[in-house]
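for the writeup, i need someone to sanity check this before i put it in the appendix. the sequnce is what the collaborator sent (i think, or maybe the updated version? ugh). structure was predicted straight from it, no edits. if anything looks off just tell me and ill rerun, i have time this weekend
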Amino acid sequence: MSTNPFLSGQEELYGTSRRLARRTGALHGAKIQGRPVPEVISELPDPERARATVVDVGCGRGSTTAHLAQRWNPVLLAGIDLSHALLVDARRRLPQQARARFLRADFHALPLAEASVDVVVAAFCLYHAPQPQRVIAEFARCLRPGGQAVLVTKSADSYRELDELVTAAGLDPHATRRPSLYETFHSGNVEHITTHHLAVRKTVNHQHVFHFRDAAHAARYLTTTPKYDLAADEQAITTALHPLVGQSGVTATSRVTYVLAERR
């Protein structure tokens, strides 16, 4: 059984922004239920803190960063990611007048002074850490007393329906037995891990539903997902899926969990 690709091979996944852009594009095009994540994030912290010093850790291509810049207009907004390619995209998303800067850094060692940040946002990134509690300890170090963190993750069984589809189509016979991409930090353990270093103030769970309209749409997403061992190209995958998916498509679900936590 292969190792979890979210815990290794980061250069392959995020050395360029193309793969992530194709994956998120296919997923967003399939979404039929669930509020936009940046919108929910922006409603959780104390408004006064959100207008001060904000750090978006694991900012990726900057969609959440751009939303927070517009919604909160903080005094200082920093986007941090380990991928240079994703940071280039993130910079392009923000208007030139935005008070924002972008830093390339590992979230285990943030280039931030102790007790210097009012709000930390970390959406869909902590499951890239073998020990996410170490990252949360770093958040606690950087937060001012009473400072807040918004942590966002998914359920461990997210998109299970696609695992079953890939297995049934014979594309990856081990798909349903592969480890969850979110195994280290998911909806079921997020509160427990967070409370080691921060006080959990609020937890919100939203169900997201995705409908891939046909075999080609599903194949577009599957070819960008690192979980599976897919030897075929996108056209061959589409052909293999068509007898199972037909013109009715396939529906998949994911629970998205938001935790608002505070430095004690």
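The chain has one domain: 5-157+179-207+248-262. The mean pLDDT is 95.
thx in advance!!
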